[in-house]
Design a protein that fits this description.
This protein is an alpha/beta fold and 178 residues long. It has five helices and five strands; from the N terminus they run ααβαβαββαβ.
């Protein structure tokens, strides 16, 4: 999108996050007021899309908790810009070490936006623990583009891999091997 169509990163993140928020709202029957959404967000483009979705579902009335995949000071560029919005809105943002995993039990939906197509081997700590915890709770997971821990090129599922109920895909489907 960026190289071939000159659609800049902030716009692609905004579009991804808008669609992810709309999908989340749809899956909750169109009503977000009184719902709790947990967003697992990485520090790259996938995470930026998750942070946009967090902002948008907050605006629609959901209670939102964000778990960052990295320390705050390692979130840079456009994702940092999105994180600043959430801070100014008063959205609770945690690092994996700080996040009380019991909050996942209270979630109506979990949004997985930790690792996208840039996966390089299995998810590592500290984000591996929230991924495992998300797989143990009843709340359905909506994964952005590709579930964290799943290699979008090979189809290999590393340990841990998010078990997503649905995966809105960006640009093209991630088919894995035939």
């Amino acid at each position: 999108m960026i190289n071939e169509l000159s659609i800049e990163l902030p716009q692609t993140m905004e579009n991804a996050g808008r669609c992810l928020a709309a999908n989340t709202c749809h899956r909750l029957g169109g009503e977000l007021v009184g719902r709790h959404i947990v967003v697992l967000a990485g520090s790259g483009g996938n995470g930026g899309g998750g942070l946009v979705a967090a902002r948008r579902v907050t605006i629609c009335g959901a209670g939102v908790s964000v778990v960052l995949g990295r320390p705050r000071d390692e979130v840079r560029g456009v994702p940092a810009y999105q994180l600043d919005f959430l801070d100014r809105m008063g959205v609770q943002v945690w690092t994996p070490e700080q996040f009380p995993l019991d909050l996942l039990k209270q979630a109506d939906r979990i949004i997985d936006a930790v690792i996208g197509y840039s996966l390089q081997g299995p998810p590592r700590e500290p984000i591996a623990s929230p991924i495992r915890a998300a797989n143990r709770v009843p709340a359905p997971v909506i994964a952005l583009d590709v579930p964290s821990g799943l290699d979008g090129d090979s189809g290999r599922a590393f340990e841990p891999t998010i078990r997503a109920a649905t995966t809105p895909s960006l640009a093209l489907p991630k088919m894995g091997p035939a």
